[in-house]
Design brief:
This protein has one domain. 5% of the residues lie in helices and 49% in strands. The protein has one helix and eleven strands. The protein has one helix spanning 20-26; strands spanning 9-12, 16-19, 28-35, 41-45, 47-54, 57-62, 72-81, 86-89, 95-97, 106-111, 122-128.
Length: 132
């Protein structure tokens, strides 16, 4: 039997309280972290699969669709500099969310750095918005 809890506020015994609409509207609805070569999903939520769409371009499919394609998406990446063996974090000049091609069930991101295409490197993306 399915149940339903109706509440306007969540309260913790020592940490205070928060309005439930903040939790519903302000939480990431999907996220994924994957290897730079685009073949290995390291961890995710509400993500059913990852597709390598070409050099530095990836898409990930959502388990539960978004309410519309106007959601906010944020992505980042890092790679190990083989010369100095330190992590280099890509700035927004190298990371883009391809909003023209995303849908309610798929988000597309691009990373304009060939050094990212290595299994030891990291890429991640998240979505904020309303689920359908």
């Amino acid at each position: 039997m399915a149940g339903k809890i109706i509440a306007d506020t969540l309260e913790h015994s020592t940490a205070g309280s928060i309005a439930t609409n903040y939790v519903v509207e302000g939480s990431a609805k999907a996220w994924v972290t994957f290897s730079g070569d685009g073949t290995t999903v390291r961890d995710s939520s509400n993500t059913s699969s990852l597709v390598d769409d070409g050099t530095g371009i990836f898409s990930y499919n959502l388990t539960s669709s978004m309410g519309n394609a106007n959601y906010a998406s944020n992505s980042s990446a890092s790679y190990i500099n083989s010369t100095n063996n330190y992590a280099t974090y890509l700035s927004m000049n190298y990371v883009g969310n391809l909003s023209a091609t995303r849908t309610t069930s798929q988000n597309n991101v691009g990373f304009w750095e060939t050094a990212l295409a290595d299994p030891g490197n990291d890429a991640c993306s998240s979505i904020l918005g309303d689920l359908a």
